[in-house]
Write a structure and sequence with these properties.
Elements lengths: L14 H12 L6 H33 L4 H14 L17
């Protein structure tokens, strides 16, 4: 396997993030702090590309079918809230009515 050339980088990072990165290295989740940071940057690039693709898909949909109305968006927000699954709730869950 050919080694990829790397660029040296100097950054200022929150101490808690440095601790988390060093802990990841200590438990074997990354081979080095640089590898951990590199993976984090790759994740961020991939995330931003997915968001851009989603934005393009929404624009293309709206170009064909018209812009989403505030009523449609409000309805989807209500459905999203009704369908959500809360993980790690600290209090006793309340019963919710199902959205129509």
């Amino acid at each position: 396997m050919r080694k990829t050339q790397k660029a040296r980088l100097t950054v200022t990072v929150d101490p808690a993030l440095v601790r988390a990165a060093n802990e990841a290295v200590a438990r074997g989740a990354a081979s080095s702090l640089s590898a951990w940071v590199n993976a984090a940057l790759m994740d961020r690039v991939a995330h931003e590309r997915r968001l851009a693709a989603l934005g393009e898909a929404i624009e293309a949909y709206e170009a064909r079918h018209g812009k989403f109305t505030e009523e449609e968006l409000a309805k989807e927000r209500r459905l999203d809230r009704a369908r959500r699954i809360v993980i790690g709730a600290r209090s006793k869950p309340t019963r919710r009515r199902r959205a129509a």
